[in-house]
Amino acid sequence: MNVRRRSSAAALAAIAVIGAAAAPAVAADPSPSSSPSRTAPSGLYGTTDPQYDGVWRQSLALLAQDTAGVVPSSTAVKWLTDQQCANGAFAPFRADPAADCDAKTPIDTNNTAAAVQALWAVGGHGDVVESALGWLKSVQNEDGGWGYSPGTPSDANSTSVVVGALTATETDPEKVVKDGKSPYDALLTFALPCAEDKGAGAFAFQPDKDGKLLPNADATAAGVLGALGEGLVTEAADKADAASCTDADKPTREGAAANAAAYLTATLAKDGHLVSALGGSADQPDYGNTADAVVALAAQGGADKAAGPLAWLEKNAAKWAAESGPAAYAQLIFAAHATGTDPRDFGGTDLVEKLNATGPAPQGVAAKDTASANTDEKSDEKDDDSPFGVWWFVGVCLVFGIGIGFLLSNRNKKQQP
Fold first, then answer.
1. How far apart are CA 3 and CA 381, in angstroms?
2. Overall pTM > 0.90
């Protein structure tokens, strides 16, 4: 694959330069570890400890800014590129980017795939993207999928985020194979059949210890996008399909995505949002996974299919995003984009302004009357093993758990990337 670079002159042709830098927001992190253990590095979005989610939240922030027509700070982009290891992989955070990565560096597929999507979007970093894609392909499992850490069993979330990186860079996932199997082959193994009494059509994160597939809304939102070959940023489908699960002897990936969307629709019907349950506490609204479900439903069946949970987010998600930081704002921007909603007036909140305020001031903002043209122009121009142990466990918990979105979304508050 030839990664083409965007012309900086064309990218900046129609922007209005922002006159003053916005001060980073000091948002309270609702997690028990809300106090940063170290000062946030210069160029990084958010103020909380980046140990588990620095690259993830930076990637989502840059990608969301690009989606909203914002030209990110060059300092912020450099912070992200400096995090890459020599072998092409990214870890959640490296305190000293000048130091070589070694066997103890917790590199993973999720942060690497997110960085690929962000750096491809902002343009000008073809060598970084090529190297990261090469590493992702080198750690593909024999079933065609990916686990969080290289060498770990494939899961629906990790496989889907890598599919997003492949398709974002114009790489056909069906041609990225290991032992004759593609990422789509792996994803279909996580899809529950419609005949299941509970969770019909859903995706499981991965089989449990007994080999049984258990429905998981987080993995289902991820699985819909992965099966459709979509990344973190996508647009609504042209029309909605019937919200019902339809069995087939060998479902296509599109059929599996439709079944999974039907599961999400049914799950969201009760409250208009997904829920998360932490050990020992009552169920709580899961804002991040609900945002991801909105993106998945719109991508599979059109904006109307996501109208209910979108309305709930517009009414309720502002406080959550303010407490959670840049990745949360990014998720909401992705949901707005997928449904054709204005992210600058999302239930009365300017998500773009709020996101910009969490980090270094952007270089500029696309003029409103030329934003679409710039998007089209940009589209035309885009021409080592980690050990298992605690890092793998943290990654699995983060991908599987706590309601921040299907791809570790907003893991700035957990023990996750």
1. 10
2. no
